[in-house]
Amino acid sequence: MRTLFVLLVGSLLLSSCVSSKKYKETVSNLQQEHQARTGELQEQLEKLNAEKETLTYDLARSEGGNAALLATQDKLQDRIDQLQAEIEHIDNKASDQQESLSNELAGRDEAINAFKDRLSKIQGVVDRWENAQSAISKEIQQALQPFDSTLCAVDQRGGEVVVVFNEDLVFYSGSTSRFRQTGIDAFQAVSAIIAKYPSLYITIVGHTDNRDVARKSLDNWDYTLLRAGNVAKLLIDEFDLGANRILPAGKSEFSPRTSNETAEGRSENRRMELILSEGANDLSREIKRELDK
Length: 293
What we know:
Blueprint: H1 2-15, H2 20-143, E1 152-157, E2 160-166, H3 167-170, H4 181-195, E3 200-207, H5 220-237, E4 246-250, H6 263-269, E5 271-278, H7 280-291
Parallel strand pairs: 3-4
Antiparallel strand pairs: 1-2, 2-5, 3-5
Helix pairs in contact: 2-4, 2-7
């Protein structure tokens, strides 16, 4: 700017001759104009610098905010990724547990079905035995029809057929070995049925009432056991039932059929019982055969 001013002054001096006063006025005007212009430009420069500082501050603040936002965004994204990984892990774990549980339930169902199948087979064997016992019971009832129904009976108790003979049908009063003919005939009729079922076992049990027997040499235990033993001999010797199938026993007065308070009750308690049952080993073998099929 200063150089331009000098050139202008030189041009004026060369181009025309002016007075010293005019020259000074011109120089003064030019200097004033220069100063005014310089001040104006300086003011504009200061404004621009201020604006620059403001913009620089705003930019820095904006950049700082953006950085903070970016950092926060990065943290949120990391948390989102972490949560997504946890969800995926939980889903995989749940899927594995569900598959394991499904396999366990399937195995349990298979075991339950296998158990039900075994139980059904066992029940089938038991049902066949019970049906066979019912058939035996009916046959014996028919065989005993000719005899006094008040002196004999056929019961089914817990998987066993029990044939009950009153003392008056079988023995003479007070005797342990003298059979009445009706007793022999009744045992013969029952033995014919038993012989058809070789798997049956026979327990012969003697019973009496709660009074002492007339024979002083015997107590009630001996009395009932002797009667049972003599019935066993009759079945073996006269009716060809195998001795290995027969077991005699005496219960004395300790298993009454009814009350001993009356004469009728005591008479009913003096009895012989034939308990017919399948051997436990035979039943076990049949069940095992059925389960092995």
